[in-house]
Amino acid sequence: MNFTKGVELLSLCNDKKLRICDVMVEREMVLANSSKEEIIDKISISLEIMKNSIEKGLTEDIKSVSGLIGGDAKKISIRSKSEKPVCGNLMSKAISYSMAVLEVNAAMGKIVAAPTAGSSGILPATLICLAEEFSLTDEQLVEGILTASAIGMIISRNATVAGAEGGCQAETGSAAAMAAAAVVELMGGTPEAALHAAATCIKNVLGLVCDPIAGLVEAPCEKRNAIGVANALISAEMALAGVESIIPFDEVVDTMLRVGRSLPFELRESALGGLAATPTGLRIKKEILG
Amino acid sequence: MIGPSSSHTAGACKLGKVAYKLAKGDIKKVVFMLHGSFAKTYRGHGTDKALLGGILGFDADDERIKYSFELAKKEELLFQFEEADLGDVHPNTVKILIEKNDGVKMAIIGSSIGGGNIKIIEIDGVELEFTGEYPTLIVPHRDMPGVIAKTTAILSQYEINIAFMRVYRYNKGNNAFMIIETDSPICTDVIGHIKSVDNVINAYLVTIN
């Protein structure tokens, strides 16, 4: 029960009438030589860390190591209690949750890389919000993480999830793709629909550069995690309604790698280009790093 | 893991940890030569703290990484960071130069390839490749007939399946080593047994997960 491409995953799902998360758990059982319970226990630990990082970011006074970010997640959460959120409750919550995790990350706190630390807000925020909105259980969330990890595994196998290699598309694009596929399966969508959602997410941010100010995983990373949850939810909504990605998932993943390779070094996590090279970006760098 | 970057923090810590394991924790001085994105962003990402944390034997989820500079100083470990051009390698690559207490020097080159995953690409001038995803046995030996057969026979006795295996040598008949990645854990008995094989110089295990 192994696969390296989206098409292989789909044929496994279709042949055995399984969901992506079921295929993934069987794959892990073989590769890690573990029982289903052991796999689920391991993922449950990650789920707990995800929840804690959201909680911490929303309740504690977080300041990043450099002092550049912190407290933004709280602001959104506070406003949503007194005003009607412009983009609805679910989206508003998802945004603040994703930013909470990024703030904890930037403060050198404990998070789950999903698939990376710089994109670690997207999957937990999307899943936990969905759980609150639709009363999903932890068991279901573990399934969601399994679905997401199948997508993340295919991307890292065939392309990259490193900003230094593929830019931000490879980080927040991959995270959104993982989250979107999880949402589709949790909401009863087919494995095909989950891959359409994942493909759509990557397409939506194709070419997005990685240009962190002063080289810190803080700005613009935090806000790009917020747009990542929106990307995941929008793409899942489309896929659940039967909207398909015209370009198949595997081809989109290959495209992401090719586009990433053609990004210059300055725009791949080197802090030499993009927003990092603006007058303000350079001033902040000087203030922080001297 | 501990933030802020899986490539630059978690991956970096794992690279340091592999070097720590290869040096058996006996490190007097370490120099980190940082290439590409590592070189440009290491301070911001805490790559320096993470690499040093790994050298101190910490795992990527150890909250002490934040304080690794202070902890290294307390242990009187000398450390230094330099920017370097290591050639045509992954943008997140580091060369780790180690001096052990007995004066022995080691050089390890590894890349952090995303999501906290790593790849060791050179040890002491020999190009090789392993990821640390599997229990990895490194066996320096003399390049003589039968050494490999005897070593793998021991693994088979203990019913350990080899997932990947490569053999490297400096010169014909001289020093060589095997890198064996296995599916199941390797206990100290097995290592002791392999060490007793004729022409095997040493055997040690690198696991990072």
UniProtKB/TrEMBL annotation, chain A:
Pfam families: SDH_alpha. Keywords: 4Fe-4S, Gluconeogenesis, Iron, Iron-sulfur, Lyase, Metal-binding. Its cofactor is [4Fe-4S] cluster. It comes from Alkaliphilus peptidifermentans DSM 18978. The keyword Calcium does not apply. Its EC number is 4.3.1.17. Residues 16-276 form the Serine dehydratase-like alpha subunit domain. This is L-serine dehydratase.
Automatic annotation (TrEMBL), chain B:
InterPro entries: ACT-like_dom_sf (IPR045865), ACT_dom (IPR002912), ASB_dom_sf (IPR029009), Fe-S_L-Ser (IPR051318), Fe-S_L-Ser_bsu (IPR004643), Ser_deHydtase_bsu (IPR005131). GO terms for molecular function: 4 iron, 4 sulfur cluster binding; L-serine ammonia-lyase activity; metal ion binding. Keywords: 4Fe-4S, Gluconeogenesis, Iron, Iron-sulfur, Lyase, Metal-binding. GO terms for biological process: gluconeogenesis. Pathway: Carbohydrate biosynthesis; gluconeogenesis. CDD domains: ACT_LSD. It holds the Pfam family SDH_beta. PROSITE patterns: ACT. The keyword Hydrolase does not apply. Its cofactor is [4Fe-4S] cluster. It catalyses: L-serine = pyruvate + NH4(+). PANTHER family: L-SERINE DEHYDRATASE (PTHR30182), L-SERINE DEHYDRATASE, BETA CHAIN-RELATED (PTHR30182:SF12). This is L-serine deaminase.
